[in-house]
Amino acid sequence: MRKAVEKEWDLTIDPDTVRLFILKAKALSAALNHDYDSGGEHEIEVDDQSRDNHHHDGLAEEESEDLTERELRALISDLNVDEAAELIALMWVGRGDYDVAEWSNAVVEARERGRGRRAARYLMGMPMLGGWLEAGLEAIGA
Question: 10-residue block means of pLDDT along the chain (142 residues)?
């Protein structure tokens, strides 16, 4: 674990909002069944003596879109430019791309990436988003 830098952070995004995003992102991660990789083939027991193979297309088989995913995507899309940049920068710090001492550089770089709906698309593609955001908050002491 990284030690938090002794600094008074003046975040635009409320740390409680980030914690809500963490909970939703972790719920999404937990919902994925890692036994069923996309396009995987699995043996199914039909009865005591019969087996059959089942091929599925992973998440494409889901009949309805996950409400948590839509909610998180909408919440991230509703952030203003500064909040979105800080959220991305927190993820980068948590992932180890930036050190907390490089916070302002991370925010500047994230501001370029996080314009409009791109922030939601970018962040929703992160498999460990919740854990990285949590680590980022911890690193800055928020």
Answer: 54 91 86 49 49 48 60 88 93 94 92 75 88 94 83
CA triplet 130, 133, 135: central angle to 5 degrees? Answer: 105
* Lookup: tokens for 80: 């203003």
- The sign one gets for the Cα dihedral 64, 87, 90, 109 is positive
Residue numbers of the domain that contains 104: 15-34+64-140
Residue 20 falls within a domain, yes or no? yes
pTM: 0.70
The reported pLDDT for the residue numbered 55 is 47
The domain tally of the chain equals 1
DSSP calls for 105-142:
HHHHHHHHHTSTTHHHHHHHT-TTHHHHHHHHHHHHT-
